[in-house]
Write a structure and sequence with these properties.
globular, 4-stranded parallel β-sheet, alpha/beta, single chain, 359 residues, 3-stranded antiparallel β-sheet
Length: 359
C-alpha cells in the first residue's frame, strides 16, 4: 500500500473519529498548550462577557489573577459586579473589540486621548468606555474625568505587572466617533448618551484591522513595560451577537464576526511561542452537542457548558484528565434547550441589553 500524507495522522485529524464518534465533553487533542501557566504566574484578564467566566475558573483553581482596581472594603460583595468590580483585572468593563483594547493601551501609555467620551443621561454623567460600572452615573463631568484618570493609572500598573494576558475576542461590530475614529463598547443611547448620526457611525472591523489593532496593542504594552516580554492567551467568545446594525440577518452577521475573529486569532498566534490560542468557541459550538451548550435563547452559555470548556483547558495546564462534573448531553433534533443558563446576575454584559429593542 502506498503511503500518503493522511496515512499516519491521529484520530483527531479526521471528522469521523475526532468529532462524530468522539465524546463532545472530552475531545482528545482539541488543545495543546504552548507554555505552562504556573500558580505564581501573574494573570490579567479582559475581553467580552465570556472572559468573566474564564477569570472565575482561574480564581477557583488557585491561580494568581490580578485585580488592580478592587472595591473599597465598605462595598458589600453582592454589589461588586453591579459597579464593575471583581470582574476583570481592572475596572474597564467588557472590551468587545481589539480597537477598544488598543485605545485603552494607548491611553495608558499617554499616546492617545479619547473623544466624545463623557455621556449624559437624566442629569447624570457616564464614562462612555465603561458605561455600566457606575449604573446611576456620576454627579458631574469632573467626577467622570477623575474616575477615569485613576482607572487609567491602575490599568497602566496592570500592564506593567502582568506575566500573562488572557483576552477573549467578542465582536467585530462597533460604533465610532466619525471625526476621530474613537470606538465605544456600546452604541450611544443604549445605556447613556445620545446617538447622533452626524457624529457617530457604525463600523464592522475586517480581518486585517483586527490583526493590526491587536499587534499594535502588543507593541504598546511592550513600551509600557520598557520592552519586557509577556505571554498572551487568546480565545473567541462562543456567544452570538444579540443584535446587528450591519443590515444583514443577525445569524449571518454573527457567523461573519466569529469567523473573522477566529481567523484573526489564528493569524496572531501562528508561529508565536508566547501567544497561545484556546478553542473555547469550537468546543462550545461542536455540532455533536446540537446547541446543548446554550440556553433557551440559543445565546447564553450554560454553566455546565462553561465547566466543560474550562475542564478542557485545565486538563492541559493542570495535568488532569478531562472529567467534566456535569456532562452536556447532546439534544435530540427539534428539542428545546434546557433553561440552566449562566446566572445573568453573575455576568455583566452591555451587549445583551440590545435584546430589549428586538421585541
Amino acid at each position: 500500500m502506498n503511503e500518503h500524507p493522511y496515512d499516519q495522522l491521529p484520530p483527531s485529524a479526521f471528522w469521523r473519529t475526532g468529532v462524530s464518534q468522539e465524546n463532545p465533553n472530552a475531545l482528545k487533542g482539541i488543545y495543546t498548550k504552548k507554555y505552562t501557566i504556573r500558580r505564581k504566574t501573574k494573570i490579567a484578564t479582559a475581553g467580552s462577557c465570556f472572559a468573566q467566566q474564564i477569570a472565575r475558573h482561574l480564581l477557583k483553581r488557585g491561580y494568581d489573577v490580578l485585580d488592580l482596581e478592587p472595591p473599597s472594603p465598605g462595598l458589600p460583595a453582592e454589589l461588586h459586579l453591579k459597579y464593575g468590580f471583581s470582574t476583570y483585572s481592572a475596572r474597564y468593563g467588557n472590551i468587545y473589540t481589539t480597537r477598544h483594547l488598543l485605545q485603552l493601551a494607548r491611553e495608558a501609555a499617554g499616546e492617545w486621548s479619547p473623544a466624545n467620551w463623557i455621556w449624559e443621561k437624566d442629569g447624570r454623567f457616564y464614562d462612555a468606555f465603561r458605561p455600566s460600572v457606575e449604573p446611576r452615573g456620576l454627579g458631574s463631568p469632573d467626577e467622570v474625568i477623575a474616575h477615569r484618570r485613576y482607572h487609567i493609572e491602575r490599568t497602566k500598573q496592570l500592564f506593567t505587572q502582568l506575566d500573562l494576558f488572557i483576552f477573549t475576542l467578542g465582536l467585530t461590530e462597533m460604533w465610532v466617533h466619525k471625526e476621530t475614529g474613537t470606538a465605544y463598547p456600546t452604541a450611544p443611547g443604549v445605556i447613556a448618551g445620545q446617538f447622533d448620526p452626524t457624529i457617530h457611525t457604525f463600523k464592522n472591523a475586517e480581518f486585517n484591522e483586527v490583526v493590526d489593532d491587536f499587534n499594535a496593542f502588543r507593541k504598546t504594552v511592550r513600551k509600557i513595560r520598557c520592552g519586557r516580554p509577556f505571554r498572551i492567551l487568546l480565545t473567541v467568545s462562543p456567544v452570538p451577537l444579540t443584535a446587528t446594525a450591519s443590515g444583514n440577518h443577525v445569524l449571518a452577521s454573527s457567523i461573519y464576526s466569529k469567523a473573522v475573529l477566529r481567523a484573526a486569532a489564528g493569524k496572531i498566534s501562528a508561529g508565536k511561542k508566547r501567544i497561545d490560542y484556546f478553542p473555547s468557541y469550537e468546543i462550545a459550538t461542536n455540532p455533536k452537542l446540537r446547541s446543548a451548550s446554550f440556553g433557551d435563547n440559543l445565546r447564553s452559555i450554560k454553566e455546565e457548558a462553561v465547566d466543560m470548556i474550562m475542564n478542557h483547558f485545565f486538563s492541559e495546564h493542570s495535568n488532569v484528565t478531562i472529567q467534566p462534573p456535569k456532562t452536556i448531553t447532546p439534544l435530540k433534533e427539534g428539542s428545546a434547550a434546557k433553561t440552566s443558563e449562566m446566572n445573568r446576575e453573575k455576568i455583566q454584559c452591555e451587549e445583551s441589553l440590545l435584546d430589549a429593542f428586538g421585541q
